[in-house]
Design brief:
Elements: H1 15-18, H2 25-53, H3 59-86, E1 89-91, E2 94-95, H4 103-106, H5 117-139, H6 145-167, H7 173-177, H8 185-210, H9 225-258, H10 269-288, H11 295-298, H12 306-324, H13 327-334, H14 345-350, H15 354-387, H16 396-401, H17 403-407, H18 432-440
Antiparallel strand pairs: 1-2
Helix pairs in contact: 2-3, 2-5, 3-5, 3-6, 5-8, 6-8, 6-15, 8-12, 8-15, 9-10, 10-12, 12-15
Amino acid sequence: MTDPKYAWLPSNLQPDEANPDWMNKGDNAWQLTAATMVGLQSIPGLVILYGSIVKKKWAVNSAFMALYAFAAVLICWVGWAYQMSFGDTFLPFLGKIDDALDQHVLLKQAFAYKFPNATMLYFQFVFAAITLILIAGALLGRMNFIAWMMFVPLWVTFSYTIGAFSIWCPNGWLAKMGLIDYSGGFVIHLSSGVAAISATFRIIIAGWAKDNEGSRKIPAEQYPTDACRSWAAMDVLNTHVCAATSLLTWLLLDILFFEKPSVIGVVQGWAAIIMGILSGSIPWFTMMVLHKKIWLLKQVDDTMAVFHTHAVAGTLGGLLTGFFANPKLSRLFYLVETWEHYIGLAYGIHEGRAGAGLKQMGIQILGVVFIVGLNVVVTSLICLLIRLVVPLRLSEEELSVGDDAVHGEEAYALWGDGEKFEKSVHNSVYGVEDLELQHKK
């Protein structure tokens, strides 16, 4: 019988349902906090980064591409993409199409975790959004904004959902095989990097033709609190050790080879250091050396070097994880008792189980091949489809002028570089050439 003091609540939101036994308030609060921190990387993080690092004439367009992607992905996510990524199985690589707007879906327990689907939806949304915003980094100041508006919902629907379901959903085919993808090396970084270079290449062709810690989710009643705390501490430490080593390696290579330090590049503890050295040196080599020598890469105008810093780095992360994965720590992370999966090749050789280690490496390689193939094909098809409706690439006039030609406004127009514009393409008789002369003055 309902407590009279809660009689004003709707029948479907009585206290026993609003605060079910399976929900842990601490887990729920931390998951929401972690999701918010990831969201801040996009809004305002990448919005400010993109708007501040490009030329002044692209500040508005670049920031707006990121802001639009964040908003558009959210609508797609609650409308159909979340269920396609984490809902009931439709195909081994895709969930059933359904919305996630009903409270009976949102308040239901998310798999075996101690928080509801609403929290899971929000957490997974910010990862989906940042993936699209990373792709935008390769297209800044190049892609037609209308084409970008079409690209975002199409890509999150037909590419991101397949990768997320296959690798992150417990029912996905790669997840069942035992693929290790902690915090998105495959689903976010490799996907965004490959999609970025595919889309950029299509835009170049169009131009020719015209002329962490939230990732550690604890299933209900299966993981001791003290162990969880020790894991989280080690996880945070190793993540930062790897990132710091990577940054220092990149910095050292810049100084040794170019005599100037640049800003653009900036398991177990010992393995994190090795991974940091490799993730700081190999993407540096592909961006600073190979990009200038390989014909295909030279044809791609990747504004923020997304392919090197995300696709190459994401591939390294996935493969090195398959090599260095500690089976004992993996069993704690995935909460499994079997030794069938999650044993790195190095530990497999050391423990006389080289076959299991080779199998894990094979699964990691399969994950790379799947994500690369998926994004090359789907991204190319999406771009070809959009080209039938609107141009992918900005016109030469728009490329020359920038924000004022595309959006009818400019950033820093009152004080940037000490200049003040009283006329623009949209409110004067000045043409594009006249406005460009004003910019040069």
